[in-house]
Design brief:
By secondary structure, the protein is α+β, with helices and mostly antiparallel strands. The chain has ten helices and eleven strands. The strands form four sheets. Strands 7-10-9-8 form a four-stranded antiparallel β-sheet, sandwiched between helices. The chain has a three-stranded antiparallel β-sheet with strand order 1-2-5. It is globular and about 55 Å long. It starts with a strand and ends in an 11-residue tail after the last helix.
């Protein structure tokens, strides 16, 4: 499917590709490592899908430009991390280009949608971020400036001091969740949030104190991602909020679709048991208990 109009990146009128908003390799990995071979998005839990969101954004040349940065990220970081072969990665200039390209395309896709809670000043800031990222991708400016890119590598947790502070899908959310969202506060956009399984990417828009983020910034030429980091407590609260959103949407799964999933598991039980979906579920069961994970009521507490 093609569309002849201005490319959102270079501005030239060309036949546009139906580009993935979040890179395709993320969804390929999700399917291969799942227990069923299918995808379900939290906002539409009762519908199977085969791919991520796509839209006519880029021409062939700009799509190829993005692929130059996606390939090293996918091979050197994304798949290596998911195979649990390393938790720290050296990178070069391609990582910042990749990060900006994802933040740019997500925000480009997001912008025409619901920005009703963003102030007029906030919308102006979003436009400036898009303009700056666009110029950086086309080598018209040397850095993204204040619109920094930050990356956080995630893994399961096996113990926590206060279990009640986390939702019972935490490990599944941490290593399997894929989401995009525009985080904001009081009409001010903070960052574009892109979660790709074990990797969270943040494109800063209105962060006033970036120094509160330690060990997460992607540098221009080279650096190391992973290892010890420090993030504001508000970001941890935000992550818990996103995990709860996913949990609430997942609980809307119909009985019919539950049966579809169970039949698929039984049809290839060996795949289901060996899948990362099942592994993440086991981690949650060990941490929170079966009753919390499977939403079973405590008979000693009565009905609610």
């Amino acid at each position: 499917m093609t569309n002849h109009q201005p490319c959102k990146l270079c501005g030239k009128i060309k036949t546009l590709r139906e580009s993935h908003i979040v890179p395709k390799f993320v969804f390929d990995w999700l399917k291969v490592s799942s227990g069923t071979g299918f995808l379900r998005w939290s906002e539409m839990p009762n519908k199977r899908v085969q791919d991520g969101k796509k839209e006519h954004i880029l021409c062939n040349e700009c799509e190829a430009l993005f692929n130059q940065w996606e390939t090293p990220f996918a091979t050197r970081i994304f798949h290596t991390l998911n195979r649990q072969e390393s938790l720290r990665f050296e990178y070069e200039s391609w990582l910042l280009k990749f990060a900006v390209s994802v933040s740019w395309r997500v925000l480009t896709w997001y912008k025409p949608n619901d920005l009703s809670e963003i102030s007029k000043e906030g919308k102006g800031l979003i436009a400036k971020a898009l303009q700056t990222w666009n110029a950086f991708l086309l080598n018209k400016c040397p850095t993204p400036g204040s619109f920094e890119q930050h990356m956080i590598l995630l893994d399961v947790i096996k113990s926590v001091q206060n279990i009640n502070e986390l939702p019972p899908n935490w490990n599944r959310f941490m290593i399997r969740g894929c989401h995009i969202n525009l985080a904001h506060s009081d009409g001010q956009p903070l960052y574009i949030y892109i979660k790709m399984g074990r990797i969270t990417l943040l494109g800063f828009i209105g962060i006033e104190h970036p120094r509160h983020w330690v060990g997460t910034k992607i540098h221009i030429k080279r650096g190391v991602i992973g290892g010890s980091i420090k993030v504001p407590v508000q970001f941890l609260d935000y992550m818990k909020e996103r995990a709860n959103v996913e949990l609430n949407e997942r609980n809307k799964l119909s009985k019919k679709q539950e049966e579809v999933i169970n039949r698929t598991y039984k049809k290839d039980s060996n795949r289901a048991v060996k899948s990362e979906t099942f592994e993440a579920l086991e981690h949650d069961v060990r941490l929170f208990g079966k009753d919390a994970v499977f939403n079973r009521k405590d008979p000693n507490k009565g009905s609610s």
